[in-house]
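Side project, low priority. Logging it here so it doesn't get lost.
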Amino acid sequence: CDKCLRNEDEVQVHSARTGHVNYSQCSDAVSSLTEDERREQMKKLQELLRAKKTQREEQERHEEIEREKKRRQQHKTLSSAKAKFEEDEVRRFVEQKKREKEEDRAYLEKLKAEIARDQEEKRARTASELPLIAPSNSTSLPTAVPKTNPTICRLHIRLPSGQSIKGEFGVNEPLSAVMLYVSQNWPNSSTFIDPQSIQLMTSFPKQEFTSEDRNRSLLDLGEFKHF
């Protein structure tokens, strides 16, 4: 810039103010500074240095603010992506549970239909049999099929649980023999069943047998005399 500087202090002041860094020897004579001028130069230099420091700090604060803004924006973007991912996961979970619930409902409906069909077939089979004798506390009715031999009676006895017991008896055997047979062949029973506690009845025509009938033969009982 062709400016002649007297000493190192002026060089520093000039550098701080202009940013110049390359200097050369000046051939022009420069008068020496007085003490007051030197103090003034030092004051200006200090002010320039403080101004530079303030400017640098301000720039650093600005850069830090920009970095913080960028960091927050990145965090916000990541948070939004995470929230969307979690929302999608919840939606997929709800949809999966809904599908499973629909599948369970369809399976139950199918199972109910199969049970109803089995019960209908069972009722149809029961209706085709000839009912003869059953426990009195049962809501189901037993059936019996007579054999061609007039001395033998085949009984199909329906239990309260819906299960049945089949047996063959001589027409001259007492009703108590049937009661004993039922107590000994009661399904899934691990305890002794007293034959005297068993009550029998026919379903068609309906007749309940009493204790007085226990010693009578099947032939003597009105429901069996035709065998």
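Brief comment: Confidence is low (pLDDT under 50) at residues 128-149.
Revisit when time allows.
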